[in-house]
Amino acid sequence: MKHWLTYSFVCILFFGCSSKDDTPDDTYVPIPYQLELPSLFEEKLIDPIIPLNNPLTVEGVALGKRLFYDNILSVDNTKACASCHMPQNAFTDSNQFSFGVSNVSGNRNSMPLFNLAWNFDDKYFWDGRALGLEHQALEPVTNPIELENSSWTEVENRLNNHQEYPLLFEQAFGTSAITKNLVTKAIAQFERIIISGNSKFDNYLNNQATLTPEEQNGFDVFMDETRGDCFHCHGNPNNPLWTDNQFHNNGLDATFTDLGLGEVTGNPNDNGKFRSPSLRNLAYTAPYMHDGRFATLEEVIEHYSTGLQNSPTVDSLMKKVDEGGVNLSAQDKADLKAFLLSLSDPSFINNPTYIQ
Prior knowledge:
mainly alpha; Cytochrome Bc1 Complex, Chain D, domain 2; two-stranded antiparallel sheet; 16 helices; 38% helix
């Protein structure tokens, strides 16, 4: 009897497993997305940050791209993420302030979007108020000066009743029930694959281009602590992001109407601090600074040369604030601009992978 029970159990287990294995599985499995990394990124940087709960897939990235360019996310179907983050401007806006659905603007310039997968502290916006790309994408949909929906429920209903989106979400995430969390996961996947790493200076570092004497001197100014002293906040050839992704008060104002990071943390020592943007693609991202106050690179360079303003929270890296700045010569200013422009990547703004 004992042996018969044992035999029966084995038979049940065997045929049960066989039956399960023989049943076709119709569940669609998304295809992993293979990031193509610039050689300098592979050499100089750690691996990009991809959340375990939102891996990159071909279907997820394609869905995120479609959502990024789709006006369906705005209350009246007139605006999309791409309305304020345009590929021809390295995914920023050529206006000082972006205009929302009701033609109302805020008081900050739209940040460019590229190389976000290497933002190692994973804080977003000029003031760092969003932790993670997925959370960053939540706010613009309901913001009264951006896409202006009264709630995410409106957007979820619109997408769930769409002819195509439920199937696209099923393929990307295994469910046709569309939620705001899945929408922002898809958008974040697309944003993480937006990579810029093919500038003239990148090619120079790869021994595939030669700098002009002006660009070389501009680079020397950038790296020289007694002249430009730019590299502390904006990196060097060993940091191809060309930003430290940290928050600094760079001497724009003596008093603040916008507290920046201080508004988020509540710490007065953070007042006037904003994220250091990447210096890549400056040829396309004017105007400059968190509030777009400078229309040209010449104005930016002049700020650091003669326009620094002292304040209680000014960064210690603004070493010559009491002198107004680093006081560059006319030649050094012109050459510094030439170097900065060599960090721009024409292939990036024309890459069909990112453009609708």
